[in-house]
Amino acid sequence: MKPFEKCALDIVGPLTVTTSGNKYLLTFQDSLTKFSKAIPIANQEANTISKEFVTKIILEYGIPEKVLTDQGTNFMSDIFKNTCKILKIEKIQITAYHPESNGALERSHRTLAEYLKHYINADQTDWDEWIPFAMFTYNTTPHTATEYTPFELVYRYQADLPTALTKPPKPTYDYDDYAQELKERLRATNQRAKENIKEEKQKAKKHYDKTAKETKFKIGDKVLVYETLRRGRSKKLDAL
């Protein structure tokens, strides 16, 4: 797997309407590097989602081979399906009964909410202005699954943080030296990221196996089926 080969999309909202008219967030995460992006949008209509997906994600990071979404009406719409079809993207729906498939993106939502609640104004109408700062913080913080910052895995160098008052001297390279070092670092970091993700999944499975209990049913048994709420929930970012 390479960066941006497989990604996940989701919608957060409705939130408090900002002074700019935004009410939702289109969120995106690369499955390998965990690099994430959140795009403020005024509505969650299918044409809006498709346009933002193309202009703010694909035109910046390239066309993914696979995209994971839930079964919201916007992602299940003909407009979004045709967008994926034209771009030859395999669209994978996550069922309501297996939301853990998109767990990494959901966790980034909680991190985003925690950041925003410290900075938004009292009437919560400026949260969209803080999104770039929040996402920069998220992408320059080491991720537990990879042990690298998402920024480094994507761009192959550590970001210079605004809080850094001094910078170490930078070595000088000729082009061949730089290209060779970049190639070696790319190979090493990608391999290590894959290993860390595999270890994290094994830990999660081990923890799940300890607590999970298999329920056996016989033909004729009566069962209750839990029906989840459809899109339109407003608890994605409770901090807002």
From TrEMBL:
Sorted UniProt keywords: Coiled coil, Endonuclease, Hydrolase, Nuclease
Write out the GO MF terms. endonuclease activity; nucleic acid binding
Question: One GO BP annotation here?
Answer: DNA integration
The record ties this protein, via InterPro entries, to: Integrase_cat-core, Retrovirus_Pol_polyprotein, RNaseH-like_sf, RNaseH_sf
Residue spans making up a coiled coil are: 179-214
Q: Superkingdom, according to UniProt?
A: Eukaryota
Keyword hit for Thylakoid: no
Q: Where is the Integrase catalytic domain?
A: 1-158
Q: Extract the SUPFAM superfamilies matched here.
A: Ribonuclease H-like (SSF53098)
Q: What is this protein called?
A: Enzymatic polyprotein endonuclease reverse
Source organism (scientific name): Lasius niger
